[in-house]
Amino acid sequence: MAFERRFATEAACRAYLVQLRWPEGVRCHRCHAPSVWATARRLYHCTFCGFQTSVLTGTIFQDTKADLRLWFRAMWYVTNQKSGVSALGLQRALGLGSYRTAWAWLHKLRVAMVRPGRERLTGEVEVDETYLGGPKPGKHGRGAAGKALIVVAAQVDGGRIGRIRLRRVPDTSAPSLERAVQAAVEPGSVVRTDGLHSYRRLVARGYVHEVVRKETAVGDNLLPRVNRVVALLKRWLLGIHQGRVSVAHLDAYLDEFTFRFNRRTSRWRGKLFYRLVQQAVAVDARPVKRLRRQLVAA
Ligand SMILES: [Zn+2]
Q: For the whole model, what pTM was predicted?
């Protein structure tokens, strides 16, 4: 109810977006000049280049015809479902007419979940690979075909797991795994892996490399944090998607899982909502292009 009161009007939602997008004052979307004046049509006219910016320009809300209040409810719903949401669940919760709309919204929100704040992990980090998805049991004899290979990086936080990063890689070659480590972990950090040969040049890439040996006694959990993350990720995928995760959409699911996992200790759900809205108005064209490809592929 507090949420409904706080965002009772379109204007309240818009003001919230303006505040999160331009905490230091409105800027032109094109030339970034800070001198703009508000038009009657809720645009900001740049006195420098004449461009008219909307708070929605370049965000996941761009070109939306829906009421922002509905978007806010969608974001509130998504952040309040502890284990994640399906398009059908979102459609029902908001009373959306079309499943396709719910699906498209959910994918846009997933893009927002992974936007900025992608600073790399530091300190001690466990890294391992795992296969996800692919043919159901019964369709045998295809090996790794149709499966996706994921690199999991989990930060050591005392006896617990800190933040994580998940990344799809094409294969277990040294260049693929090194690129994944470089994207996930700050150089200078300690990277702990098994004895896979592909990791052998991590020291040359600026990391302190610790190898835990696979050949030790069966049952030894030498990379306990990544193993735990992999188990949770597989259970989560099964739980909300009944395991029917197509490899084409896997990146979006990995983003959602990472977002939720890294904020799992946020005591206040409102904080999660705040982060989601903040990332929804952060402007970066690249993930939107990726989203467009996903929508075309769907
Ligand atoms: Zn301008």
A: 0.71
Output the CA angle 3-69-74, nearest 5 degrees: 75
Centre of ligand 1 from the C-alpha of residue 37, in Å: 11
Q: How does pLDDT run across 207-236, given as a tens digit for each residue? A: 999 998 766 555 567 899 999 999 999 988
How many angstroms does the Cα of residue 15 sit away from the middle of ligand 1? 21
Give the tokens for residue 78. 């998504």
**CA angle 47-52-56, nearest 5°?**
135
Cβ partners under 8 Å of residue 285, min gap 6: 58
Burial annotation 177-194 (CB, 10 A radius, 16+ → b, else e): bbbbbeebbeeebebbbb
Contact indicator for 147, 241 with CB cutoff of 8 Å: no
- As a whole number of angstroms, the distance between CA 219 and CA 216 comes to 9
CB 134 within 8 A of CB 202: no
Query: Around Cβ 31, how many Cβ atoms within 10 Å?
Result: 12
How distant, in Å, are the alpha carbons of 21, 23, 50, 123, 295 from that of 35? 16, 15, 10, 42, 36
In terms of Cβ atoms closer than 10 Å to its own Cβ (0-12, 13-18, 19+), residue 40 is exposed
Quote the ligand 1 centre to 160 CA distance (angstroms): 48
Q: 85-127 pLDDT, tens per residue? A: 889 999 999 999 999 999 999 988 888 887 655 679 999 999 9
Q: Say what the alpha-carbon torsion angle 117, 163, 291, 129 is, to the nearest 10 degrees.
A: 140
201 Cα–ligand 1 center, Å: 47
**C-alpha count within 13 angstroms, C-beta hemisphere, residue 52:** 6
Q: Where are the beta strands (DSSP E) in the chain?
A: 36-38, 44-46, 52-53, 124-132, 148-157, 160-169, 190-193, 208-211
